[in-house]
């Protein structure tokens, strides 16, 4: 049954355009990439090690500092600072392609592995950045894969608490501000990790990286908006306010 022109208009309506990724050199970026249909992308220890071995030199080649990471069975997170406008997308392209070639060869498969585009957003390099490191490092513990976050071998957590240094990681300024010595910084971070994040903080981190919205205080987000034409924050829900009528 034909419901008239309106039905055809609804069917033909194009999908909403996807915003370009927010990439700003010199700022920390939280990156998330899932396996296609959330399929397993790391089957065994050799897969995990292969990814780490690829990440280290490729990050250096593309001038991207890696601050934190976690490799989960079906996705991974990175916290990085690119030093050029193209550094992050070039790193992610090279890393994704190189890993897929290795994975497909090892597991006798073909085809795609990743779920389309990776997700990313800019994080304020102060308290939100430390929250992002905690969010990333505690992911395996929250998922029930380990009893303690530092016990997970495929993340930066053991590095941040001083249990297993990874010299290729670059601690950001906010981490250095935790103490005057490596021991003091590691002890303070371990305490913050044990305290964990509030539900509100965790949800903000999840929504920001999935939506591509900048994470930080209002003045930081406003200043960031001045550096790019791409919208950096989510619009408020509902209709815009109208100016009230002048009283009669």
Structure description:
The chain is of the alpha+beta class. Helix content is 42%, strand content 11%. The protein is built from ten helices and four strands. The chain has helices spanning 5-12, 45-61, 87-106, 127-137, 139-142, 157-160, 173-176, 182-195, 199-211, 218-225; strands at residues 29-34, 64-72, 75-82, 119-122. The protein has a four-stranded antiparallel β-sheet, sandwiched between helices. A hairpin with a 2-residue loop joins strand 2 and strand 3 (75-82). Helix 2 runs antiparallel to helix 3. The longest helix has 20 residues, at 87-106. The chain is globular. The protein starts with a helix and ends in a 23-residue tail after the last helix.
- The number of distinct helices, counting runs of at least 4 residues, comes to 10
Q: SSE string, helix = H, strand = E?
A: HEHEEHEHHHHHHH
Report the structural category.
alpha+beta
Tell me the major beta sheet.
4 strands, antiparallel
Q: Assess the beta-strand content as a share of residues.
A: 5-15%
Strand order of the largest sheet: 2-3-1-4
**CA(first)-CA(last) distance:** 52 Å
The chain-level mean pLDDT equals 89
Radius of gyration: 21 Å
What portion of residues is helical? Answer: 40-55%
What oligomeric state is this? single chain
Q: What's the total number of strands?
A: 4
